[in-house]
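Input (structure):
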C-alpha cells in the first residue's frame, strides 16, 4: 500500500488552533506534515502531539513558501496539499491512495471537494492538458502528486496569499508547470474533503493583488491571446461585482506586464 503525507500549511497561533479543530483522522500509512509560519512561540495543542503528526516552524511569510516547506518535509509516496480549514474522513483520504494505486501512470491527480462556490468540474475523469477543460480551475487542496514524479517542482513563492505583489494563482501555476513538464496530470471525480469557506477568486471582492496574479497567470498561460482575454476577465469581474472595471483593467494589465520577468525566474517553479 502506498503511503500518504498531507502537506498542511497554517499561519500564526490562530492557525494551529484551526488545525487542531480539524480532528485529523488516524489512518495507517497517512501522516500530517504541518508547516507552521510565524507561530509566535505558541505551544503545539495537545491534540497534535501524535506520532502521525510532524510540525515544522518557519518564520517566513507567504502561502507558497509555506507550502514548499511542507513539501520539503514530506517523505511519503503521495503528497496531498492541505490547508487548515478542511474536513476529511478516513474514507476520503484512503480514496486518494487508492486512486494512485490503480493508476500507476498518473503523476499528479486533481479531485473534487465539497465547496460553497467550487469550479465547474469535468463530467468524467480526464487527462489535464494545456489549456484546462473549459470552466475548470483548481485549488491547492484538490491536488495530490507522487513525490518522486514532481521532483524539484515547487509552488512559485511570488504567488499566493501573503505574497507582496501576486496574492493568488499559485495553485494554477503549479499545475500548469506540471503539465508543461510533461507529467501525467489527471482529474478524478472523487470527493476528497469539505472546504466550508470561500477561496480566492470566489469572494465578493478581488483585491489588487488577486487581479495582478490573475493578469500575470493569463499572460503566462495564454501569451498570444492574453491582451484579448484580460479585457474579458475584467468585464466578468466587474459584472460579478468583484471590482470596478477601471481597477480590474489596471491591475490585470500590471500583472500581465510582469509575466516575462516571472518566466525568467527559478526553474523549480516553472518548466
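Output (sequence):
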Amino acid at each position: 500500500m502506498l503511503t500518504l503525507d498531507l502537506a498542511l500549511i497554517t499561519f500564526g497561533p490562530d492557525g494551529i488552533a484551526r488545525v487542531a479543530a480539524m480532528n485529523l483522522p488516524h489512518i495507517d500509512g497517512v501522516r500530517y506534515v504541518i508547516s507552521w509560519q510565524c507561530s509566535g512561540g505558541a505551544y503545539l495543542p495537545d491534540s497534535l502531539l501524535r506520532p502521525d503528526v510532524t510540525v515544522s516552524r518557519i518564520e517566513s511569510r507567504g502561502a507558497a513558501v509555506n507550502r514548499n516547506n511542507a513539501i520539503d518535509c514530506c517523505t511519503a509516496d503521495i503528497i496531498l496539499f492541505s490547508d487548515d480549514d478542511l474536513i476529511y474522513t478516513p474514507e476520503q483520504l484512503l480514496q486518494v491512495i487508492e486512486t494512485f494505486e490503480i493508476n500507476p501512470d498518473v503523476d499528479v491527480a486533481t479531485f473534487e471537494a465539497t465547496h460553497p462556490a467550487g469550479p465547474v468540474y469535468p463530467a468524467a475523469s480526464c487527462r489535464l492538458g494545456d489549456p484546462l477543460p473549459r470552466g475548470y480551475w483548481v485549488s491547492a487542496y484538490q491536488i495530490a502528486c507522487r513525490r518522486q514524479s514532481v521532483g524539484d517542482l515547487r509552488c512559485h513563492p511570488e504567488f499566493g496569499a501573503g505574497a507582496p505583489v501576486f496574492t493568488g494563482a499559485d495553485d494554477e501555476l503549479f499545475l500548469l508547470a506540471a503539465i508543461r513538464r510533461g507529467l501525467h496530470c489527471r482529474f478524478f471525480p472523487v470527493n476528497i474533503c469539505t472546504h466550508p469557506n470561500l477561496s480566492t477568486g470566489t469572494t465578493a471582492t478581488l483585491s489588487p493583488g488577486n487581479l495582478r496574479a490573475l493578469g500575470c497567470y493569463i499572460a503566462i498561460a495564454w501569451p498570444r491571446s492574453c491582451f484579448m482575454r484580460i479585457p474579458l476577465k475584467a468585464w466578468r469581474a466587474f459584472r460579478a461585482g468583484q471590482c470596478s472595471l477601471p481597477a480590474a483593467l489596471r491591475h490585470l494589465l500590471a500583472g500581465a506586464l510582469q509575466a516575462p520577468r516571472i518566466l525568467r525566474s527559478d526553474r523549480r517553479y516553472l518548466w
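Notes: The chain is about 35% helix and 20% strand. The mean pLDDT is 95.
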